[in-house]
Amino acid sequence: MADQHGPINVNVNVNQVNTQTQHGQSQNTSGCLGCLGIIGVLMVVGFIGKAFEASPVLGSLLVAVIVIGVVGVIVGKVNAAQAEKRAAAAKQAAEARAAQLRADIESRAAVDAIGGCMWCGHPGPHRAENGHAVHPRDWHALEVEEAIRMAIGGTAAPAPSTPPSHSIPPQQQPPQPTGPGAAAPPPQPPARSTQRSLHIRRPQRHDRDAELLNQLRYDDSGECLWCGSPTEHRSDTGRIVHPAKFHKAEYEAERDAGGASTGT
Length: 264
Prior knowledge:
- By secondary structure, this protein is mainly alpha-helical.
- The chain has a domain at about 45-105.
- The protein is built from 7 helices and 4 strands, in the order ααββαααββαα.
- The chain has helices spanning about 1-55, 55-110, 135-140, 140-155, 210-215, 245, 250-255, and strands at about 125, 135, 235, 240.
- A two-stranded antiparallel sheet has the order 1-2.
- A hairpin with a 5-residue loop joins strand 3 and strand 4 (about 240).
- Helix 1 packs across helix 2 and helix 2 packs antiparallel against helix 4 (about 140-155).
- The model is unreliable at about 10, about 155-175, about 190-205 and about 260-264 (pLDDT under 50).
């Protein structure tokens, strides 16, 4: 047993010696620095004493210069620390203000109680060319981001009171002529849709699932092929959300309904 434990005891002893050596070196280093500091202070005091012996005015001037230098260094460090604190507080306040402005503006791009768009006042849901319903936040993504940018920059932009160019405008009817000799007005041509064309054909019965799944992705420019949003969908934390996850409920509803879609 003594032979088996012999090497272990030797290793422990060596480790203890190394640890004690390191502690001794660190203590020696700190002791040397302390000695150098004391020597420096003594040299300065001796220099000041010689200056006073040579001329009291010169000694007083030297002491004043040293005191002013020390005070200046201390004041400079304090001011730098306070400036860093003020900069950090200002940055946090700016980030909080930007987050609040973004939340307020994005809350206006929502669906109202009757299913319309709160941003532009459209009475019904916005729909892409393939008939998929588009959330107002995605339909007006560029306008919402521009409003947020202007609000954070100091120029707040109110929500538009009229539908944008890519929403469906209400059909305007010309005034009807009255009187016994008035001719019947010519039939009005159907209004052309001004929505963005996604160039996606409506799925047929035999391949509707494959077509619907193919629309759950982004193209090369970052546009969502399902709803036509020009920018990627993002979560509340700012992370990009895949269309398959973002439009999961809509996809399942259309798949269960047989892929049929109707426009407004």
